[in-house]
Amino acid sequence: xxxxxxxxxxxxxxxxxxxxxxxxxxxxxxxxxxxxxxxxxxxxxxxxxxxxxxxxxxxxxxxxxxxxxxxxxxxxxxxxxxxxxxxxxxxxxxxxxxxxxxxxxxxxxxxxxxxxxxxxxxxxxxxxxxxxxxxxxxxxxxxxxxxxxxxxxxxxxxxxxxxxxxxxxxxxxxxxxxxxxxxxxxxxxxxxxxxxxxxxxxxxxxxxxxxxxxxxxxxxxxxxxxxxxxxxxxxxxxxxxxxxxxxxxxxxxxxxxxxxxxxxxxxxxxxxxxxxxxxxxxxxxxxxxxxxxxxxxxxxxxxxxxxxxxxxxxxxxxxxxxxxxxxxxxxxxxxxxxxxxxxxxxxxxxxxxxxx
Amino acid sequence: xxxxxxxxxxxxxxxxxxxxxxxxxxxxxxxxxxxxxxxxxxxxxxxxxxxxxxxxxxxxxxxxxxxxxxxxxxxxxxxxxxxxxxxxxxxxxxxxxxxxxxxxxxxxxxxxxxxxxxxxxxxxxxxxxxxxxxxxxxxxxxxxxxxxxxxxxxxxxxxxxxxxxxxxx
Lengths: 356, 169
Known about the structure:
The complex is a heterodimer.
Chain A: H1 2-36, H2 57-67, H3 78-95, E1 104-107, E2 110-113, H4 123-132, H5 135-143, H6 147-178, H7 183-188, H8 197-200, H9 202-215, H10 240-265, H11 276-287, H12 289-319, H13 327-355
Antiparallel strand pairs in A: 1-2
Helix pairs in contact in A: 1-10, 2-10, 3-4, 3-5, 3-10, 5-6, 6-9, 6-13, 9-10, 9-13, 10-12, 11-12
Chain B: H1 2-22, H2 26-46, H3 50-75, H4 87-113, H5 129-137, H6 141-168
Helix pairs in contact in B: 1-2, 2-3
């Protein structure tokens, strides 16, 4: 029975990220950019004249990319050229295992915790796999046997290493406030509205979001791609399904970042001013305990993913608002601004905890 | 189940380590070394040391190996060719194989007589971040601080080396 519950949770998250969010995010990005630039956006793909506000585009894209020629340049390392997209796709997907998308519910006397793996190391696990995400771009850039690709790979890895430091130090404040590395405990600690991470760690939130954006190599931090400088960076020599896997990795990382931000700073699955117990006791008056727990669970999953969708939207908006930074500006921001500020954040958090 | 996982991880670690040594392409060697680190992290998980496992991946596979791969890629090392065999080398490698074989035969004999200390009963929270952190900052505070001074001197050294090049160029 436990195995079935675990498999259901894994299947739920997997289909939601790979099957629903990742394809639709491509569409969302095109529509969002069209909205911001006063265009109509993707609306050409149709089935019998129905366009469904352009929602057939992900399907059309998938068919196009699967049937495209899979090109491997001459002199490239075939094996590494092939595995590089997979290497960049796995880390953001696997990081979702420790993000709780709901609290704990008692259904038929069985405790169900809505997280795939409640590890003691918690967020460190995400950082461990985020550090492995560097190898995707690096191997892709090196194996392509192309100077632009190698330049993109070098830029990508230097940038990711730099921002990993800042990202790791910003969340230490969160650990100190909630006294745990476990994301479930951090989430449970934010039941009260004014105990949300955004109120206790406002600086931490902005720094974390900035370094997470840089870690994902999106505009304004997309010098690794830099199509006007180094063509397309590390995935220049990729086509077809392998090319789209880099994009899938980027979109899944957007979802993962939104999930982490929601859990750390925006109360996870909690609704402002309504505690879980109040919700369960309200529904159990009408429907009985088991059904009340199930309904609360569904509401919490909905609340969590609503918040996630909000942060996806926020990242899309930032992507289409800000122009690209120069490389030295990115490095300066990472090492000279974010790093000292995150250390200061730890110091101030420590002093406040000591005094209260 | 645990034994099976151990054999998979152990064989994986040994095989990737061997490939690291014998592969002709230096980049492939480095990537296999990363795989070795990941397998070792898996063995740490089996030993209930989750914190150690995560740190192993984060520091070794995620940070130090990136530097290795970086350097190898920038130097653009080509695949190595086997050097020509000479009688001298053949003799040396023959003696080497004999010595290794002798060691392999003798190792079980060394452990036979001695009694290894029994594994003490581990507590429930063994290997958790909290316990490791507490031990690190109480019982092992001096080694911990000495290590951090060592790392600090390495950082300062790196900064000075980087600065020197700018002045000369």
